Amino acid sequence: MKTIIGQLLIAIISIQLSITTSQNTDRVGLLALQRAWKDKLLEWNSGSDPCGGDWADIKCNNSRVTSIILTSMGLTGGLPMDIGQITELEYLILIGCNFIGQIPSSIGNLENLEDLSLNNILTGPIPSSVGNLKNLSWFDLSANQLTGSLTVSDGITPGQDMLTQAIHIRLGDNKLSGDIPPGLFHSEMTLRHLLLENNSFTGNIPSTLGLVQTVRLDRNSLGGDVPSNINNLTNVNEMDLSNNSFVRSNVPLWFSSLRSLTTLKMQHTNLVGELPADLFSIPQLQNVYVYPFVD
Ligand SMILES: *[C@@H]1O[C@H](CO)[C@@H](O)[C@H](O)[C@H]1NC(C)=O
Ligand SMILES: *[C@@H]1O[C@H](CO)[C@@H](O)[C@H](O)[C@H]1NC(C)=O
Ligand SMILES: *[C@@H]1O[C@H](CO)[C@@H](O)[C@H](O)[C@H]1NC(C)=O
Ligand SMILES: *[C@@H]1O[C@H](CO)[C@@H](O)[C@H](O)[C@H]1NC(C)=O
Ligand SMILES: *[C@@H]1O[C@H](CO)[C@@H](O)[C@H](O)[C@H]1NC(C)=O
Fold this sequence. Notes:
With 295 residues, this protein is an alpha/beta fold. The protein folds into 2 domains: 2-214, Ribonuclease Inhibitor (Leucine-rich repeat, LRR (right-handed beta-alpha superhelix), Alpha-Beta Horseshoe); 215-295, Ribonuclease Inhibitor (Leucine-rich repeat, LRR (right-handed beta-alpha superhelix), Alpha-Beta Horseshoe). Helices cover 12% and strands 18% of the residues. It is built from 1 helix and 15 strands; from the N terminus they run H-E-E-E-E-E-E-E-E-E-E-E-E-E-E-E. The strands form 3 sheets. It has an 11-stranded mixed sheet, with helices on one face. The structure holds 2-acetamido-2-deoxy-beta-D-glucopyranose (NAG) (5 copies). One 2-acetamido-2-deoxy-beta-D-glucopyranose binds next to loops.
């Protein structure tokens, strides 16, 4: 009897401990952020429970921190490794807060993230560990100074092709380079909006792009032909391929197979020929910017 009660007590104490410990890692993580950000603006009271209700810009569920949303805060500093301790985070939105430095690889520990939006002055590569964010539906690292290339998993290292729940991938206005790997897109993905404009991507447009609705690849250094075979983009409604380095090529036939098209922008794309007349039979087409044509 005694031992049963004893074991029960131990069990209760250890459950209690593990709850306190996971709550505590949130607090440790948040305080590390506060330190890294040399904060004078955040209303975070280091002496109290982050889920106690008096920490600004934090939301909790079941005593765990699930959301941090900071916009235009004029903070300084970087994103510390300890951010990876706030493991129940679902929303991490840091926009216009002037954060510098690299995105820590520990971001990949935040497996419950659904929305990761970081628009600051971040540099360095996109850590391959973001591929572990299986629940991510909104992935926005646009308007930073990120370098390096997009990565595809190889069985050991994760990659961005693993973001199968991502609806919205927005990496525009950075300094990303290299090819857009064809393996990035595959049939298990739910990707609808792919925004990679104003980077330094090279190579060809992969023909695997598939079921996206919005695609912006304008202002890169993509080369080769404007592909003649993106027939699978049947859902695309907005497409901007302007200002790349495509070689001179004929107006592609697939223009008029894009039956969902509302906006087509292809300025300075080295196209020769005339627009197919049946392009204008697409009922909801609103904007076409395809010029200049070369002779
Ligand atoms: C809080 O978490 C519970 C289960 O963990 C979930 O059912 C509920 O929807 C969550 N509430 C919010 C507001 O996210
Ligand atoms: C992801 O989302 C699903 C369904 O919304 C949820 O059951 C799961 O706990 C979430 N977290 C992870 C790590 O998959
Ligand atoms: C293009 O991206 C660079 C790098 O992030 C940025 O400095 C620049 O302002 C962007 N250009 C436009 C027109 O947004
Ligand atoms: C287009 O889709 C079909 C069927 O989903 C697939 O077999 C084919 O390889 C795709 N074409 C390209 C160029 O990706
Ligand atoms: C492409 O470049 C031209 C001239 O450099 C500029 O006028 C135009 O606005 C650009 N278009 C897009 C969509 O970036």
